[in-house]
C-alpha cells in the first residue's frame, strides 16, 4: 500500500511532527513493504507565504498566528475559506470578534488570500506520489487546514482513502469530525500503534473495520464509531520516530536561515500525578491518563540515535510529566555524555534542589514545571499537590542552576477570593529577580478536565468557545462534540483584583532582566553570608549575615515556619528566644529577602545568576563584582 503521511499547519516549523515520525516508524516495523511518503505542510506553508508576499510574511508571522492565537482560532480561520470554498466566509465574524476582544488580526487577514492556492499546491504534490491512503494528524489548530486539504484531495480523487488521527480526534471530538465531513473516510481515536495497522489490514482485505477499537468509519451513509478501548499501548510498542523525510525537507528549505531545528522525543505517556489527583483545569491527557514510560536506557538510546543521525542538539521531550525514575537512570546518562545538548522537559514543581541541579547537569536547559500560582489555597483548589512557597522555591532554584523556566499564572477558580491574591501581589516586587510567568489568564474550560466533566466543580454553564463561530460552519450541538475549549461564566476574583495582578506581573516582567539577589559566603570568614541586592525597586545594598543569621537563612532555603526555624537554630546551639527569631524573620521579609506563604517563610536569594537574553536578543551580563570589600548597607539583623 502507498501511504502518504501529512502534518499541516500549524505544526511548529522548527521541529518535526512527532505523530508523523511515530507512524512512519510504526509502519517501518509493522508493514515494511508499504511505500510511505510524507508532506510537511508547516514548512511548505511558511515557504509559500514568504515567496508569495516577497518576504513580507515571514516565519515570525507564522508563529504569531499559529502559536500565539490558539485561544482566538486565527490559524484555523485562515484556512476556513478554503474549507468552505468561500474566500469571504467568516471574515465579518472575525472582525466583530476582534473588535469585541481587542485582538490584532492584520496578519491573519494578510495570510487568508494565499490559503486556497496553498491547499491546491499541497494536493498537487501529494497526489503526484500516487498514494492509496493519506493520513493526516491533527492537534490544536491543525483541524481546518487538514480538513481543507482532505476535501480537495477527495474532490480530485474520490477513491483515495482519507484517515485522520491525533489529539483532536480523541473521544467525541473524533466522531463529530467524522460525521460532519463525509470526505473523511476514517478517524482513529486514541493511540494509533495498534489501531492504524489493524485498519490497513482491513483495507487490504476489503473488510469492514468493525473490530478496530475507537475507529470511526462509514457504513453506507451512516457514521459508525467503534467503542474505544480501555487498553493502553505499553512503552515497548511505542516506536522510535523516523524523521528522515522531515530532515530532507528542512535541509532544502529557504526557511533554514530563520530557524533553529529541534528534535522531538517521547519518553512517557499519561500523567502519574493525574492518575492520583487530576488537576482540575487540565484536559491535555484526554481519555488516556494512565502513566507509562520507556526505560531511561531506552530513551537515551533513542536520543543518541536521533542526535547522531540528524546532527541536531536541541531536544524537546513531549512528556506531560517527567518519570521520576529518570532521575536515577536517564538523567545521569545524559549528564555523563559529552554532548552540548539543550533539552526541554515538563516536570512537577516540587522537585528538590538536588533534582534541579541534576537536570542542569544533564543539559536540560528549559523546564515547564506547571507552577500556575504562588498561593497555597488556590493551588489546593487546582489539586496541584504543592504549596505556593514550594513553587517560589522552584523558581529560585531554577535561577540558581541556570534553567529557563516557563510558566503561566492561572486564576478564576471557583472558591478563590481576593485574600488569596493580594498578599502575593504585595510580594511580587521581591520576586523580580526570579523568572516571571509568560502570561496570566483566567482558566479555560477544557474538554476532559475535571472542571468540564463534573459540573459540581462550579462550571455548570458551558458552550463552545465563541471563537469557533468564525472557524466552523456547524450548528452548536455539533460544535459541542467537536471542540476542545468552552466558554463559561467567570468565577473567582473580580476585575479589580485581576487588574492588580496583571499590573504587578507587567512590572515583574519589565524589570526581571536587570534584577539580581545573590548570596555567597564571605571569603576568609567563618559562617558569614553576603546577600547582594541589585533588584529593581529595592535599595542597592549588601546584607551581611553572620552566625545564627547565616544559619537561619540556610534553613529557610527549604521554607520553614517560625517555630520550626527556632527549633532548628536551637539544635545548632543558638540560644535565642522565639520572639527574637520572629522579629528577624519579619525584618527579612520586609526587606524582600523572604517570601511569606501563610506561616511559611522561604529564602529568596539565589546562589548563582545566569546570563539572560533580553527581548531584543542582547545578553544581559551579570552585575559587577560583588566583593566583600565593596559592601554597602548593614546586616539585616542589626
Care to describe what's here?
Helix 9 (172-179) crosses helix 20 and helix 14 crosses helix 15 (353-361). Residues 622-638 have low confidence and may be disordered. The chain has 24 helices and 27 strands. The chain is globular and about 85 Å long. It is an alpha/beta fold. It has a seven-stranded mixed beta sheet with strand order 2-1-3-4-5-6-7, sandwiched between helices. A five-stranded parallel beta sheet has the order 8-11-12-13-14.
> How widely separated are the two ends?
80 Å
Strand arrangement within the widest β-sheet reads: 2-1-3-4-5-6-7
Q: What shape does the CA trace take? A: globular
**Helix percentage:** 25-40%
Helix-and-strand structural type? alpha/beta
Instruction: Give the low-pLDDT segments.
Output: 622-638
Rg result: 27 Å
Q: For the residues shown, what is the average pLDDT?
A: 94
Q: How many beta strands in the DSSP annotation?
A: 27
* Percent of residues in β-strands: 15-25%
Largest sheet: 7 strands, mixed
Contiguous helical run count: 24
What's the quick description here?
This protein is α/β, with parallel strands linked by helices. α7 packs across α8, α9 (172-179) packs across α20 (476-482) and α23 (562-571) packs across α24.
Amino acid at each position: 500500500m502507498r501511504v502518504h503521511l501529512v502534518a499541516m499547519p500549524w505544526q511548529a516549523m522548527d521541529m518535526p511532527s512527532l505523530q508523523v515520525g511515530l507512524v512512519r516508524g510504526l509502519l517501518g516495523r509493522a508493514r515494511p513493504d508499504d511505500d510511505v511518503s510524507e508532506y510537511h505542510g508547516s514548512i511548505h506553508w511558511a515557504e509559500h507565504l514568504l515567496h508569495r508576499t516577497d518576504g513580507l510574511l515571514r516565519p515570525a508571522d507564522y508563529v504569531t498566528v499559529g502559536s500565539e492565537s490558539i485561544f482566538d482560532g486565527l490559524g484555523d480561520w485562515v484556512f476556513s475559506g478554503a474549507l468552505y470554498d468561500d474566500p469571504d466566509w467568516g471574515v465579518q465574524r472575525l472582525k466583530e470578534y476582534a473588535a469585541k476582544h481587542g485582538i490584532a488580526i492584520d496578519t491573519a487577514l494578510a495570510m487568508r488570500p494565499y490559503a486556497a492556492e496553498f491547499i491546491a499546491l499541497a494536493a498537487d504534490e501529494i497526489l503526484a506520489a500516487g498514494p492509496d491512503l493519506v493520513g493526516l494528524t491533527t492537534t490544536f489548530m491543525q483541524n481546518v487546514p487538514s480538513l481543507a486539504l482532505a476535501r480537495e484531495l477527495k474532490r480530485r480523487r474520490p477513491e483515495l482513502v482519507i484517515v485522520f488521527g491525533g489529539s483532536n480526534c480523541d473521544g467525541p471530538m473524533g466522531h463529530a469530525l467524522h460525521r460532519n465531513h463525509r470526505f473523511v473516510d476514517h478517524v482513529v481515536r486514541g493511540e494509533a500503534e495498534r489501531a492504524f495497522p489493524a485498519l490497513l489490514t482491513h483495507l487490504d482485505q476489503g473488510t469492514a473495520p468493525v473490530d478496530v477499537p475507537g475507529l470511526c468509519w462509514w457504513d453506507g451513509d451512516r457514521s459508525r464509531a467503534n467503542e474505544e478501548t480501555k487498553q493502553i499501548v505499553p512503552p515497548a510498542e511505542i516506536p522510535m520516530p523516523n524523521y528522515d523525510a522531515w530532515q530532507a525537507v528542512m535541509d532544502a528549505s529557504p526557511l533554514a536561515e530563520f530557524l533553529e531545528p529541534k528534535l522531538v522525543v517521547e519518553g512517557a505517556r499519561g500523567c502519574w500525578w493525574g492518575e492520583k489527583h487530576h488537576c482540575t483545569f487540565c484536559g491535555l491527557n484526554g481519555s488516556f491518563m494512565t502513566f507509562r514510560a520507556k526505560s531511561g536506557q531506552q530513551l537515551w538510546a533513542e536520543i543518541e540515535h536521533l542526535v547522531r543521525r540528524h546532527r541536531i542538539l536541541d531536544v524537546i521531550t513531549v512528556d506531560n510529566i517527567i518519570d521520576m525514575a529518570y532521575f536515577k537512570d536517564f538523567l545521569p546518562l545524559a549528564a555523563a555524555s559529552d554532548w552540548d545538548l539543550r533539552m526541554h522537559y515538563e516536570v512537577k514543581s516540587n522537585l528538590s534542589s538536588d533534582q534541579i541541579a541534576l537536570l542542569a547537569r544533564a543539559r536540560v536547559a528549559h523546564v515547564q514545571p506547571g507552577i500556575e500560582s504562588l498561593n497555597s489555597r488556590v493551588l489546593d483548589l487546582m489539586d496541584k499537590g504543592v504549596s505556593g512557597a514550594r513553587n517560589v522555591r522552584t523558581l529560585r532554584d531554577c535561577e540558581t542552576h541556570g534553567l529557563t523556566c516557563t510558566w503561566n499564572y492561572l486564576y478564576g477558580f471557583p472558591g478563590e477570593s481576593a485574600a488569596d491574591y493580594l498578599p502575593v501581589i504585595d510580594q511580587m516586587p521581591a520576586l523580580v529577580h526570579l523568572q516571571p510567568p509568560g502570561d496570566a489568564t483566567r482558566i479555560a474550560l477544557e474538554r476532559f478536565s475535571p472542571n468540564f466533566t463534573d459540573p459540581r466543580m462550579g462550571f455548570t454553564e458551558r458552550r463552545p468557545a465563541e471563537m469557533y463561530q468564525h472557524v466552523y460552519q456547524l450548528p452548536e450541538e455539533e460544535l459541542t462534540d467537536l471542540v476542545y475549549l468552552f466558554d463559561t461564566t467567570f468565577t473567582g476574583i473580580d476585575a479589580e483584583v485581576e487588574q492588580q495582578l496583571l499590573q504587578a506581573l507587567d512590572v515583574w516582567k519589565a524589570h526581571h532582566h536587570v534584577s539580581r539577589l545573590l548570596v555567597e559566603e564571605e571569603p576568609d570568614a567563618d559562617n558569614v553570608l553576603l546577600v547582594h541586592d541589585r533588584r529593581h525597586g529595592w535599595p542597592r545594598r549588601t546584607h551581611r549575615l553572620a552566625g545564627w543569621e547565616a544559619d537561619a537563612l540556610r534553613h529557610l532555603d527549604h521554607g520553614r515556619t517560625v517555630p520550626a526555624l527556632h527549633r532548628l537554630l536551637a539544635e545548632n546551639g543558638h540560644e535565642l528566644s522565639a520572639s527574637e527569631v520572629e522579629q528577624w524573620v519579619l525584618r527579612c521579609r520586609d526587606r524582600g529577602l523572604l517570601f511569606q506563604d501563610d506561616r511559611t517563610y522561604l529564602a529568596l536569594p539565589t546562589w548563582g545568576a545566569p546570563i539572560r537574553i533580553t527581548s531584543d536578543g542582547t545578553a544581559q551580563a551579570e552585575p559587577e563584582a560583588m566583593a566583600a570589600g565593596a559592601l554597602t548597607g548593614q546586616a539585616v539583623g542589626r
